[in-house]
């Protein structure tokens, strides 16, 4: 089941389950469209992958399978992933 995280890991903007500007990578790292475009350059700082729009879970399914309430925020700040 896809984890619907409640916020942008970069700027901490609220991203409710119905947010159309929520983007995720293959590991479900969640960022807002503004941070992905203006700070991250379309590359996940955690895994180096790309982003896709986060699906919107239908209301009936959201009741049965609620979104996560655990906020994730990059304590070290948010920027492009550095080469290893």
UniProtKB/TrEMBL annotation:
Q: Which organism is it from?
A: Mesorhizobium tamadayense
Q: What is this protein called?
A: DUF1272 domain-containing protein
Pfam families found in the cross-reference section: DUF1272
Superkingdom to which the source organism belongs: Bacteria
InterPro entries attached to this UniProt entry: DUF1272 (IPR010696)
């Amino acid at each position: 089941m896809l984890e619907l995280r409640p916020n942008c890991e970069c700027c901490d903007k609220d991203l409710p389950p119905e947010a159309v500007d929520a983007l995720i990578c293959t590991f479900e790292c969640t960022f807002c469209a503004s941070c992905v475009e203006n700070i991250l350059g379309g590359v996940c700082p955690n895994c180096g992958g790309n982003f896709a729009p986060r699906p919107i879970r239908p209301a009936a399914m959201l009741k049965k399978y609620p979104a996560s309430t655990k906020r994730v925020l990059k304590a070290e700040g948010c920027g492009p992933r550095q080469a290893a």
